């Protein structure tokens, strides 16, 4: 999970979570805090964005980032992110 969060997924659009959510995942001017959120919350949001069931301006930015993620990628990302201190 840490590698996906810090470096992005090879072969995807390559955007790492820290690019928008910040090095400590505590948020930035363009993205909310994700550090310390529950793992199920993170997986659900990633899945909903990928499946198209979540909408909004910010979601459009996330669509290419999550498009190539597998279910296991989402679980790995969520495990890492949820273990970080907000």
Please summarize what this structure is.
The chain is an all-alpha fold and 86 residues long. The chain has helices at residues 2-7, 17-21, 39-51, 57-66, 71-82.
- Separation of termini? 17 Å
Number of strands: 0
Report the principal-axis shape. globular
Estimate what percentage of residues fall within beta strands: under 5%
The computed structural class is: mainly alpha
* H and E string: HHHHH
Number of helices: 5
Radius of gyration: 11 Å
The biggest sheet, with number of strands, parallel, antiparallel or mixed sense and barrel status, is: none
Indicate the low-confidence ranges by residue numbers. Answer: none
- Overall mean pLDDT score? 94
Helix content: 40-55%
Topology:
Elements: H1 2-7, H2 17-21, H3 39-51, H4 57-66, H5 71-82
Helix pairs in contact: 3-4, 3-5
Architecture overview:
By secondary structure, the chain is an all-alpha fold. The protein is 53% helix and 0% strand. It has 5 helices and no strands. α3 crosses α4 (57-66) and α3 runs antiparallel to α5 (71-82). The longest helix has 13 residues, at 39-51. The protein is globular and about 30 Å long.
Keywords:
single chain, about 90 residues, mainly alpha, 5 helices, about 55% helix, globular
């Amino acid at each position: 999970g840490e590698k996906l969060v810090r470096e992005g997924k090879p072969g995807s659009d390559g955007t790492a979570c820290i690019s928008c959510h910040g090095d400590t995942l505590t948020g930035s001017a363009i993205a909310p805090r994700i550090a310390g959120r529950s793992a199920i919350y993170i997986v659900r949001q990633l899945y909903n964005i990928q499946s198209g069931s979540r909408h909004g301006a910010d979601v459009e930015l996330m669509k290419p980032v999550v498009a190539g993620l597998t279910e296991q990628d989402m679980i790995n990302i969520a495990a890492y992110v949820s273990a970080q201190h907000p």
